[in-house]
Please model this.
Amino acid sequence: MSSLTVRDVHVRLGHKQVLAGVSAMFAPGQITCVVGPNGAGKSTLLTLLAGLRKPDSGEVRVDDAHIGALPPRIRAQRIGYLPQIPEVAWAIDVRTLVGLGRTPYIGARGLTAADDAIVDRAMENAGIAAMANRDVTSLSGGERARALIGRALAGEPEWLLADEPLTGLDPGYQLEVTALFRRMAGNGCGVIVTLHDLHMALRMADRVIVLAEGRVLADDTPMRALAPAILTQAYGVETRFWDGAAGPVIEIVGGRG
Amino acid sequence: MTAISRGALFAILLLAMAVLAIASLSAGKMWVPWSAWFAAVDDPRWTIVFELRLPRTVLAIAVGMALGASGAALQGYTRNPLADPGILGVSSMAAFGAVMTLYLGMSVTFPWLLPVGAMLGAFIGVGTLLLLSGSASSLLTFVLAGMVLNTLSTAGVALALNLAPTPWAVNEIVNWLMGSLADRSVEEVRMALPFIAVGCAILFTMPRALDALTLGEAGARSLGISMERTRLWLALGVCLAAGASVAVTGVIGFVGLVTPHLLRPLVGSRPGALLLPSALAGAVIVLAADIIVRLMPSAAELKLGVAMAAIGGPFFLMLLINLRRKAA
Model:
């Protein structure tokens, strides 16, 4: 079975020790949510897993291979990454944007007929087939987010790493994107997302990792990892679980002040 | 949305280039009709066409392609529609490099030093740009870095003029700086063409990287693009193509700015798809401008660089106003 592993990674940015000895093993076919207060090192962890940054010490492995030892193209074929602040510089159409997801596969001739078919399927799955010819700059925030996820789908990654994919989306789109991740995990993809919304983490994750000050505070099922004692330690807030209509709900009862 | 098919775009550009190339061989102070091209070798008209106008036409095409491709590549890399070898200071750095060889008088004994100086200047220019801008390559840092390079190289050139040993040297430098295709010989073609060809060839291998950069640097790297290699290729391609162009023609600005901008809507805004059409259109623009300059009824021939600046300046202004409107 394939795996993505970090072992005792340390990262220092300027004067700040962003990650201080994080170890975790990720499994395919699961949604893993990484939560934690601002500056806990969530995004940095994701860039390590994507192979975009080298840890100061410790290692990141894909199966048994060192991530740095993989040729960039192969790494990109296996690991898809959605940055926190999505940038689309030019007024390309949605189809072209999704087609960029095929970059690690194409040669000098550009997209082949097989690539085109995969792009079509990715757009279908992301629910953006109807806007294939629309200019990316004309899309709403939610449409844009789905178009970018469509781009990640087109790369057919074994691992999808998404940094704050739900930020700025209205509740309807949040559920839609969550459902999309669930389908990908159902197809065997290992989905790793960072989230601010604890409630969404509780709702979508198979497993939750709580980071605080560059260390793993909890790595468990959502109910256990997001237990009141841990959240108090991580965020300094007092919480409790409620039984909601669609499953348990985290209520924030009191804060630091 | 691609407004017209790629095949049609290439056909139109190549046709325009062919027509203008023929016109460029015929037009000038003396009109040489097609029928006289293959007159006897001792006919003066043969000399005009093949020894004066042919090198000039070939250089117009080569320089136009170099500037068009460099502009498209720089805009794609910086994700900035205002990038261009001229505005980013690469051309003026090349000019500075060339002027240094003129000033030191070395170009008389070793003519090949001038293009080497120009390309070295261009390389330092692109290299400094890429270093200065680093990973936070915002529109502002690039334009500011370009301004710094432009200021420094202008100061360098002024210093060379100031300290020039003879009025003759001053005259040579000034004339050369204004940018022109007049009186270029087969020598210049031989000097510049190989470098321009290699530079363009390097730039033409970059579509995949430039397309991926649409998603920003992190996005491109996550798609398996090596930024180190992309930067190196870009610096080499631009310094060879733009540097060699500046070496033989002086600074001809705005071609690299205007051309990609005009073609962008026609290729669906994909930066990689813009490279080749932009090179062809650059050749078309320089050819056309050079013909117009030749036909101007003025005592001294209008310099091509001056003419392009006169057209490009207002265009640049328009672009800025449009950008502001979009941002507002």
In short: Chain A touches chain B through 36 residues (CB under 8 Å). The longest strand of chain A covers residues 16-26. The domain at 4-85+157-254 of chain A is CATH 3.40.50.300 (Rossmann fold). Chain A has one domain: 4-85+157-254.
